[in-house]
């Protein structure tokens, strides 16, 4: 556990390229994927630790961290239509404990695309939040793990599913599933990726479509009682994967083309499909990778910076 200092958020501070997105893609700070995995790891640790003298102190620290982390993520990373409207109307330079705009986000920094992307029903955990910076991109892995770990509340989990259904063409297209949305291109691509020839627009980690994510989507669909979404995605994958020799990823806005540097016969593409099929055929398998909501996981604090370890 980190000691108290300047960085007092309960989230984990990370460098760029620290996750499945392992090249320069502007995810430095507090990426949703790492925070969701961290939350799940803490919950798993809590279940495995013995309630003895040696484990008691560690358990207390984990419980405290979980409360702070869940409150922080559900409050500051969550975005839906109402929250987007609230951020759009934020005042800036508020510094007291009564501040509404706690991260001093400048409304003009909200990208234009998110206003059209956000449906009236639906929502998601955005990519990153830190002082004066919000990364509004959608990241599939982080949102699916948030559902499976119960970092997302039941209402938020259903809203994520609503978003996927409403924005099917953008997030699924012709091959599930977009690793991130939207893409970086032109000047933004040059600055953020360093002109990375692999992460060109709608390719690889820059808006590419990854079949391996199919099992995570399927698990999230089953947990939220929306198996029809998973079935639709699996049908899409089945129409291409075998014929295309199980590529690593697909390119293009709709995921129509085999990735320009995609390796063929990828084990995780095959495994992702098989696990998805097995879970859909026998939903009881979900229990191996999903945690139910902890009813005691209610926020004990009112400010994300008020926790100590």
From TrEMBL:
Belongs to the glycosyl hydrolase 100 family. One of its GO terms (biological process) is sucrose catabolic process. It comes from the Eukaryota. Keywords: Carbohydrate metabolism, Glycosidase, Hydrolase. Invertase that cleaves sucrose into glucose and fructose. It catalyses: Hydrolysis of terminal non-reducing beta-D-fructofuranoside residues in beta-D-fructofuranosides. Coiled coil: none annotated. InterPro entries: 6-hairpin_glycosidase_sf, 6hp_glycosidase-like_sf, Glyco_hydro_100. This is Alkaline/neutral invertase. Its EC number is 3.2.1.26. GO terms for molecular function: endo-alpha-N-acetylgalactosaminidase activity; sucrose alpha-glucosidase activity. Pfam families: Glyco_hydro_100.
